[in-house]
């Protein structure tokens, strides 16, 4: 996860803080959580600037409002912070043996952002959050963690509270810039198209990019969230099926684990090692050995 914060060195003033995200539903790219906070005494003025749900604004409008947050006059009273959750982190959380749901990942990101604001000296008095899951239980969870703060969790909070709208814009602009400037670390993918569409599974342009970018052997680059059913379905349809022989199952039951890994490599003991059935079945021969 990447974290970026622009803070205000004012500790005695009370602050209102909003939290929202961008990129929860797409099959590719990061999920970005953002907070925006401002002095309580400045909140009404911030509300008059014109912040709204980022999904209701054009890209040009979002970037213009985002730049306004960086102006000297507004930065005297406000600040913002983001947390980028990479597609690899999302996939790892949702696919490991003990799975972590996307809701739990989102809750953790929100809690960390609020806690970090407090630790940096921001006197947070009120928090407004766009809900993830049932708002009542989510609000109780946060209120128990931060009893000194007045917490409000609501559906469509990005349309109801300007401070959440500002956080929504910070998150959306950041995610868009991540995708626009994405660097494929995999070899020979420098020229891969970045015309992803919106990234949502229902977008025909996104599905076209997913089909065009799928390597039948190596699959997808790291920008993809492999835990999404869209990705799994396309891999099942278009990728080469791979059989992974299980040496553990092929080994004789009497073989000890330590014996199989730490056998002495001399002529007297070399015959004790059992070849995998996979190699015998395919009549594979040894061309070179490091022993």
Automatic annotation (TrEMBL):
GO cellular component: ribonuclease H2 complex
Cofactor(s) named in the record: Mn(2+); Mg(2+)
One Pfam family cited in the UniProt record for this chain: RNase_HII
Binding site for a divalent metal cation: 20-21, 130
GO molecular function, one term: metal ion binding
Cofactor binding, note field: Manganese or magnesium. Binds 1 divalent metal ion per monomer in the absence of substrate. May bind a second metal ion after substrate binding.
Domain of life assignment: Eukaryota
Keywords for this protein: Endonuclease, Hydrolase, Metal-binding, Nuclease
InterPro entries for this protein: RNase_H2_suA, RNase_HII/HIII, RNase_HII/HIII_dom, RNase_HII_hlx-loop-hlx_cap_dom, RNaseH-like_sf, RNaseH_sf
Catalytic activity, reaction form: Endonucleolytic cleavage to 5'-phosphomonoester
EC nos: 3.1.26.4
Family the UniProt entry places it in: Belongs to the RNase HII family. Eukaryotic subfamily.
PANTHER family associated with the record: RIBONUCLEASE H2 SUBUNIT A (PTHR10954)
Functional note: Endonuclease that specifically degrades the RNA of RNA-DNA hybrids.
Protein name in UniProt: Ribonuclease
Organism: Coemansia reversa (strain ATCC 12441 / NRRL 1564)
Lineage: Eukaryota, Fungi, Fungi incertae sedis, Zoopagomycota, Kickxellomycotina
């Amino acid at each position: 996860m990447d974290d970026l914060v622009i803070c205000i060195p004012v500790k005695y003033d009370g602050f209102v803080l909003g939290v929202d995200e961008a990129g929860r539903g797409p099959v590719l790219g990061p999920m970005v959580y953002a907070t925006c906070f401002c002095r309580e005494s400045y909140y009404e003025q911030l509300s008059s600037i014109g912040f709204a749900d980022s999904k209701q604004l054009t890209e040009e409008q979002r970037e213009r409002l985002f730049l306004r947050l960086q102006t000297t006059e507004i930065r005297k009273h406000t600040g913002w912070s983001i947390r980028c959750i990479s597609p690899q982190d999302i996939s790892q959380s949702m696919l490991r043996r003990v799975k972590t749901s996307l809701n739990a990942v989102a809750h953790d990101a929100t809690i960390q952002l609020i806690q970090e604001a407090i630790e940096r000296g921001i006197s947070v008095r009120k928090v407004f959050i766009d809900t993830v899951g049932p708002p009542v239980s989510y609000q109780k969870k946060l209120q128990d963690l931060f009893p000194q703060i007045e917490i409000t969790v609501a559906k469509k909070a990005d349309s109801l509270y300007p401070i959440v709208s500002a956080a929504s814009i910070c998150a959306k602009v950041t995610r868009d810039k991540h995708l626009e400037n994405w660097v494929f670390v995999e070899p020979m993918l420098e020229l891969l198209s970045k015309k992803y569409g919106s990234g949502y599974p229902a977008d025909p342009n996104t599905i076209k990019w997913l089909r065009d970018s799928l390597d039948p052997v190596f699959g997808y680059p790291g920008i993809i969230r492999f835990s999404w059913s869209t990705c799994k379905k396309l891999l099942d349809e278009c990728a080469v099926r791979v059989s992974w022989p299980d040496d553990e199952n092929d080994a004789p039951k009497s073989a000890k684990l330590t014996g199989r890994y730490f056998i002495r490599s001399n002529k007297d003991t070399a015959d004790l090692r059992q070849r995998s059935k996979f190699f015998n079945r395919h009549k594979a021969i040894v061309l070179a050995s490091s022993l």
